[in-house]
Amino acid sequence: MLRRYKRILNDNTNVTKITPEVAPWLANDFLPYLRLLGIEYIAWICSSDMQIQNDTEAVLEKLTSPVVALFDDMATAYEWLSTARFQSPVMLNTPRSITQIITTLKERISSMSGQA
Q: Would you list the DSSP string of the chain?
């Protein structure tokens, strides 16, 4: 049975380094596809690394959906995520089946891992 989730708790506490390709990939590929999959809210726990925090903020600056809130600790992020009110996401692109979206994501991830 396929379950649809609307919330994500993303913990980057232990992230100490990212490659330059990560920020554009998040902004242009990954986060917009989460919106298409029905994700409405993301509680994002930041890395303690200031450069990663700056990169994260730059990625999220222009994102309108899903709603992403940045946090410094798990407890606050969890509290926000568990009380966030949900609304239907706005579909900015032509609706596609979940199978098409997952296939596209897998292809992009595969092509990125082949470039490493």
A: ------EEEEE-TT-----TTHHHHIIIIIHHHHHHTT--EEEEEPPS-HHHHHHHHHHHHT--SSEEEEESSHHHHHHHHHHPPP-PPP--S----HHHHHHHHHHHHHHHHHH-
Asked whether residue 87 carries a pLDDT value surpassing 60, the answer given is no
Instruction: Locate 33 and state its tokens.
Output: 């596809």
Whether residue 66 is preceded by a cis peptide bond, meaning omega within 30 degrees of 0, is yes
CA dist 51 → 12, 19, 20, 35 (Å): 13, 11, 11, 26
Question: What pairing do the DSSP bridges indicate for beta strands 41-45 and 67-71?
Answer: parallel
Output the pLDDT for position 114. 60
First to last CA, the chain: 34
Cα 38 to Cα 16: distance, rounded to the nearest angstrom: 29
Task: Please indicate, yes or no, whether the overall pTM of this predicted structure exceeds 0.70.
Answer: no
- Sheet-wide strand order for 67-71: 7-11, 41-45, 67-71
